[in-house]
Task: structure prediction
Amino acid sequence: MKRAETLAALRAADAFDVLVIGGGIAGAGIALEAARAGAKVALVEARDFASGTSSRSSKLVHGGLRYLAQAQFGLTRESVRERDALLRDAAGLVQPLRFLLPVRRGGRNGRAKLGVGLFLYDQFAGRRTRRWHAADELLGAAPGLDPQGLDGGWSYLDAQTDDARLVLRVLTEARRLSALTLNHAKVEGLTRNPLGVDGARVRDQISGSAFTLKARVVVNATGVWADQVRANLDRAPLLRPLRGSHLLLPAWRLPLAQAIGLFHPDDGRPVFALPWEGRTLVGTTDLDHDAGLDQEPGISAGELDYLLRALQAAFPAFGLSAADVLSTWSGVRPVVSSGRAVDPSKEAREHLITLEDGLITVTGGKLTTFRSTALQALRLAQSRVPALRQLDGTAPVFTPIEHQSRLRTLAPELRARLTARYGSDAAAVVGGAAPDELAPLCGTPTVFAELRWACRAEGVEQLDDLLLRRTRLGLLLRDGAAQLLPRIQPLASQELGWDDARWQAECARYRELIARCYGVPGARP
Ligand code: FAD
Result:
């Protein structure tokens, strides 16, 4: 359904069973599970789908070994279960990833200590994935690693994804089950009846027009912005926004066949590097985010140096520097504040679900656990929405995809990629493309057909929707994939109807955004 049609359908509807505010992974998961149960669902997103923290994560679908170290056993158990369900139901979009943990003589985390942690982690998964590797074997798997004092290392299995594409696939599935989802539509206030919250006032950010949506239950899934929506009910803030930043490097500068976990030489915090989309992703920092939430977050010069120092200490032979960085991004975690001034990394990462005057708020969770969190939140609404008594926590996360004969002629890798990202739309992605649009773009795994499909069918309203979330080209290529812009202009003209003036305005806005929030701090204009 085109955006204008969705907007018209939302305006025309009397009332919904469930209105979800926020189109990140939490909101998408809630919309999907509510629609699966047969509820009439609407979801509105202030900016773009997944434009909040859900496109800015470390892209891990993981049990969270570090949560185990903080004795958050419930979170680890739930995360491991959800990880395994996603590996099964979203194969290809969620992929196994082996992690190496080097052990150094005299280091804080010796073989025995890490071994106990990994033993417990394997217990939660119900299978043994941990292995001990001698130093030689470890150096073969991670060339360039400093051999000095290396005892060997552990490895274990976790998983990774493309976070924004995961959100988009969940939303596609929700729409297939009749949910209406609209991006660039901001909730500006809540409406109430004597029983509590019964709807929201929404402003379409494209046309500027306002309208009201009514619902039996309203779910506030606005992540780090959740306190802003709760403020409509005069509730005190709950969240401590914590920023985490990442770097992306070319794989040839830091080649890794699997992920590697390191302990930062300055403070012992865990830092990791992992292969992602043919590049190497490095993260993350963890510090209070004092900038306002209305601006997109970006890495600071101090965070860049901190992450580079971890790499330089672990891989001294590679001489890595800021010049190697392709792109950066920062996300802000909606961490539920303990109210104490503890070290950010010591705040618990459990999600929070509250019911206040009929408003359900879901915040502080993980990408990994979106489905179990959605089910927990919706159970709170079962008395108001009878359809939600049919919630089905055992259904596959995604409907199994039928064989698509149109994909038969594709190379196996491309077929797997498109099926994983687009589900049963993969055949339409290929069907809408010219033959030369199925070749990888500029050394990335992305094909031009994905850009065309995104413009045609995935609600692209701005250039960053296309290059930062529908595809990740803006992260994978230097300067936000500036080299591709001349090839994208005719596409935007054909598929989105952008004339030259609109194209120039989009490019100017996009370039400024890339320089401010996705580049290397010192290199900013
Ligand atoms: P968001 O994705 O932020 O979505 C909230 C949405 O609400 C936004 O899109 C926003 O625009 C919208 N919104 C706000 N106000 C309004 C309004 N008034 N009207 C309409 N819409 C509104 N988890 C993992 O499982 N694995 C990881 O590897 C991982 N790494 C992480 C790394 C970092 C640095 C960070 C910060 C987090 C990481 N997480 C990870 C956690 C995970 O990414 C987040 O918990 C999750 O993405 C939060 O999703 P959300 O939907 O709650 O919030």
In short: The mean pLDDT is 94. The CA atoms of residues 16 and 215 lie 4 Å apart.
